[in-house]
Design a protein that fits this description.
Blueprint (H helix, E strand, L loop, with lengths): L1 E3 H4 L9 H10 L3 E9 L20 E6 L5 E12 L2 E10 L4 E6 L12 E11 L4 E3 L8 E3 L3 E3 L2 E3 L2 E2 L27 H5 L1 E7 L10 H12 L22 E4 L7 E8 L8 H9 L7 H13 L3 E5 H12 L10 E6 L5 E3 L5 E3 L5 E5 L2 E5 L3 E2 L11 E8 L2 H11 L4 H6 L7 H17 L2 E2 L4 E4 L7 E5 H8 L5 H10 L3 E5 L2 E5 L10 H16 L20 H15 L3 E2 L5 E2 L1 H5 L26 E2 L4 H11 L6 E11 L8 E11 L17 H14 L5 E5 L5 E11 L2 E9 L1 H4 L9 E7 H7 L15 E10 L4 H12 L3 E10 L8 E10 L8 H19 L2 E2 L2
Parallel strand pairs: 2-3, 14-17, 29-32
Antiparallel strand pairs: 1-13, 2-13, 4-5, 4-7, 5-6, 7-12, 8-9, 10-11, 15-23, 15-24, 15-25, 16-23, 17-20, 18-19, 20-21, 21-22, 26-28, 27-28, 30-31, 32-33, 33-37, 34-35, 35-36, 36-37, 38-40, 38-41, 39-40
Helix pairs in contact: 5-6, 6-10, 11-13, 20-21
Length: about 850
């Protein structure tokens, strides 16, 4: 939000430097991102302040100084034709010291061309020779110095300035026409010099999204006296009673609706000082009626909307089919949009409305999207003479949904979606009506039509000095606490050592009970000063620490996978059915499991909760494979599936591992750059599960629609499937731009793993006796799994066989067709004594005999 200092001074005297004010506001939560100086000299200032041991936040500054002896208020007395150019004029100008002939091509001076001496001098911003201004014909802000020159045979050495040349705005088509009371010869910096604070309004300080709101904060921070806004209205028109009525259908979405009426207005441009303030605040001036609504909104924080009252009367008469001379009373109705209802808004776009969208209507139909934007049919135009002014309060969550659904941000919506107190509705209407009366003439009807259907109860919160000390670590007296809360306009009642604070009628951010107490402590800390709170050790008793076993094991899984060379990613949990379908081959039908859809999605491709981690993992690999050759990733996260016992989804945690690219990156000493395959992935799973002390792990060939046929296996834990691993299906990978190397995927059920991880496990000391190592190669049938051979070897070897693993598989003519040779490395070891050759030979013979009997295996010679 942009806050001109001159406007702020309407409500509070500022007796500290602007930079210090910006610093205090920033520390109090209203971060001043930029100070823009309008004619005032930029201070040298410090970007760092080590007072109290805290750094001053660095605030960006910008602007150009208007030299007081070079840029002044001038008066154009006459506009004459240029002798040699049709698109230029010569102005006879008085700068308070002497008259000058000034050359210009400003189009807003051409209506006066050749009409002789003006009956009323035009007050302008005049830059004398040598003045430094912005070049109005260059893009951006390029400083130039006015020098004497000849243009089409006429000497030119000075200039009547546009807003761009003075750094006010980008407007440079016409020169500035000041108000008639501008004193001739006064330095322009004294007349309209200003500074603008660009403040970032965070959601929990939305009450400060107005000039008066910022003034309240300044008063609380500095102790200066706050001047309340002028809400007195000169109402000389007839009573509003009987001229309009209000119906609120859903008070929880529209707690209050207020209407005021002004008749006999004349639409014209606003005074220049009004236009200037609106531009400095970031809004474009339109006319005196629209400007009045925007000015009141920026000043008080209550968005307003003006209707052409006569159009509403015509709509009411046409809807009831009354004769043209009959009196028709408009009825303003607030309701939800009907299915398929449409409205053309002020931006000229016809919008199809959602059924949750609140509308302001009359008996003939919709007039505006409540709290967001008005409709084109009832807008104020140059022919408008009577204006019905609306101020209201809306449910901020519903407004937020409407903004996102329609993609329709606005200044009004910016405030309503953050919460506007219902008390401000009548204040905004009163202020808007008086501004219209002053700038557009007319007579304000006496009274307001006010339907306060759901009055807001401002909460009362208890707080003590002990609460403040405990939560802030600072001992503040009862007087200090009440002084801060009173400066924040809380209504206080003190009973002994307890303060009962009632939230002021402009705030919606104070909660009840403990939450409200935390809100008050935060307010006390803001105004007292975060920079004054010392760093102290926690003195409170720590709560008992209970182990969260699932989180501990998940952390262990992450550590093991990182140690194995994988990198963790976290992907978006929101997706779309079309994106998830990419993980399946084209001929495979999509799963018949309903998705959980978001009522208010953040984008068209983030509409549902995911069923699988695979699609988001593949999208991540697709993006990153262009940048790196080897990818080894894992993700632990939930998928969302229907639950039989609850309308909410079942959040099942999954672990997904993905490998692609070379086994090792190329290095100067040489490395294995062959692509990673099924066995690299299986080795990682083995290491992970062994690291979790899981036993009875097995693998079995299986089929899965996302995996390559014949290159897919399920992971078994005690004969229960806990996951699947294999290579991505070649038809599924065509849906992604992936590297040519195989892409290996493992998808595991984290919940099943967590349930199986033992709380305790046995450990063994390092054996003191030497092992006996030998290899054993056997020939078996091609279809026999190596895991079955390994199982028989372990059974036959007994406890003395401490380790066995497969290290070679061979197929060839030497062993015959349909056969394969499996070579195992065996380790024999007794923890109590050294084994003899004879003992090892007996165990080896027993192993060979059992392999022959159970599997038909033959020892390979």
């Amino acid at each position: 939000m942009k806050v001109p200092i001159s406007w702020l001074k309407d409500f509070i005297d500022i007796n500290i430097p602007i930079e210090e004010l910006a610093h205090r506001l920033t520390l109090a939560g209203l971060e001043v991102e930029e100070i823009r100086y309008l004619g005032l000299p930029l201070p040298e200032g410090k970007t760092e302040d080590r007072s109290g041991g805290h750094l001053r936040p660095e605030t960006k500054t910008s602007g150009i100084a208007w030299a007081s002896d070079k840029i002044v208020v001038g008066a154009v007395l006459e506009v004459m034709p240029h002798p040699n150019a049709d698109r230029l004029v010569l102005c006879r100008l008085d700068d308070g010291e002497q008259e000058h002939i000034v050359l210009t091509g400003a189009p807003n001076l051409f209506p006066y061309k050749g009409k002789g001496k003006l009956s009323q001098p035009l007050k302008v911003a005049y830059a004398r020779e040598g003045a430094k201004i912005y070049d109005g014909h260059q893009p951006g802000q390029v400083i130039t110095t006015l020098k004497r020159t000849i243009i089409r045979g006429v000497e030119s050495y000075s200039m009547i300035c546009s807003e761009k040349e003075l750094g006010i705005s980008d407007e440079h088509e016409g020169v500035i026409i000041l108000d008639d009371d501008a004193p001739i010869g006064q330095p322009l910096v004294e007349y309209m010099g200003d500074a603008v604070l660009n403040i970032s309004i965070i959601p929990n300080i939305a009450r400060a999204a107005s000039i008066y709101g910022v003034a309240r904060e300044v008063a609380a921070l500095t102790g200066a006296r706050l001047r309340p806004p002028e809400l007195t209205v000169v109402a000389e028109g007839p009573s509003i009673d009987g001229k309009v009525s209000i119906q609120i259908t859903e008070p929880e979405l529209n707690p209050r609706f207020v209407l005021g009426l002004i008749e006999g207005i004349d639409i014209r441009p606003s005074p220049y000082w009004v236009q200037l303030r609106l531009r400095l605040a970031g809004m474009r001036p339109i006319d005196n009626i629209v400007d009045a609504t925007n000015y009141a909104m920026l000043e008080l924080g209550e968005p307003l909307h003006a209707f052409d009252y006569d159009l509403l009367v015509q709509r009411a008469r046409g809807h009831t089919k009354q004769p043209s001379n009959a009196n028709a009373t408009p009825t303003i109705i607030t309701r939800r949009a009907q299915p398929g209802e449409k409205l053309t808004t002020l931006d000229g776009v016809e919008r199809t409305l959602d059924d949750f969208t609140m509308l302001v209507c009359d008996t003939a139909g919709a007039l505006s999207i409540a709290g967001v934007m008005g409709g084109a049919e009832s807008e104020v135009s140059t022919s408008t003479r009577n204006v019905l002014l609306e101020g209201a309060s809306w449910n901020y969550i519903n407004i937020r949904r409407t903004i996102n659904a329609q993609n329709l941000p606005s200044e009004a919506a910016y405030r309503f979606e953050r919460g506007v107190h219902p008390e401000l509705a009548s204040q905004g209407v009163l202020r808007g009506l008086e501004l219209m009366r002053q700038w557009a003439g007319g007579k304000v009807a006496r009274g307001l039509v006010d339907n306060y259907a759901l009055p807001h109860a401002d909460p009362t919160v208890e707080i003590t000095t002990q609460d403040v000390t405990r939560w802030l670590g600072v001992e503040l007296s009862l007087q200090e606490i009440t002084d801060i809360l009173e400066r924040l306009q809380f209504t206080l009642e003190v009973r002994g050592q307890i303060v009962y604070a009632t939230s002021p009628p402009h705030r919606l951010d104070i909660g009840q009970g403990t939450i409200g107490k935390a809100d008050l402590v935060e307010e006390i800390a803001r105004i007292y000063g975060y920079d004054k709170i010392p760093e102290t050790r926690m003195a409170d008793e720590l709560p008992p620490q209970w182990e969260n076993r699932s989180l501990t094991i998940e952390k262990r899984i992450r550590d093991l996978l990182v140690d194995l060379g994988l990198q963790e990613i976290i992907t978006h949990r929101l997706t779309s059915p079309e994106r998830e379908a990419r993980r399946l081959p084209p001929e495979v039908p999509t799963e018949d499991v309903p998705y959980f859809r978001l009522t208010n999605p953040i984008s068209s491709d983030r509409t549902v909760l995911r069923h699988s981690l695979l699609s988001s993992m593949l999208e991540t690999i697709e993006r990153n494979s262009r940048l790196r050759e080897r990818i080894a990733l894992f993700e632990i996260g939930p998928v969302y599936l229907p639950s039989e016992d609850s309308p909410l989804p079942e959040e099942a945690n999954r672990l997904l591992i993905a490998l692609t690219g070379p086994r090792m990156l190329a290095a100067w000493q040489g490395s294995d750059t062959n692509p990673m395959d099924f066995y690299d992935l299986k080795g990682i799973l083995d290491s992970l599960l062994v690291g979790l002390h899981l036993k009875n792990i097995g693998y079995k060939a299986t089929q899965h629609p996302s995996y390559h046929p014949g290159k897919c296996a399920c992971v078994l834990l005690d004969d229960t499937q806990i996951g699947v691993l294999g290579e991505l299906h070649p038809l599924a990978r065509k849906h992604y731009e992936l590297p040519e190397t195989p892409l290996m995927i493992a998808d595991l059920n984290i919940e099943a793993i967590l349930a199986a991880v033992p709380t305790r496990y046995e450990i063994q000391s390092i054996p003191s006796q030497p092992p006996v190592l030998e290899d054993l190669a056997v020939v078996v049938h091609e279809t026999l799994p190596a895991e079955r051979v390994l199982e028989v070897i372990r059974q036959a070897g007994g406890k003395t066989l401490s380790d066995v693993h497969l290290f070679d598989v061979y197929r060839g003519d030497q062993i015959g067709e349909g056969k394969k040779s499996l070579a195992y490395s065996l380790t024999y070891q007794d923890p109590t004594r050294t084994l003899t050759d004879d003992e090892v030979s007996k165990i080896r013979a027993r192993i060979i005999r059992q392999l022959e009997q159970e599997l038909g295996a033959k020892l390979r010679s």
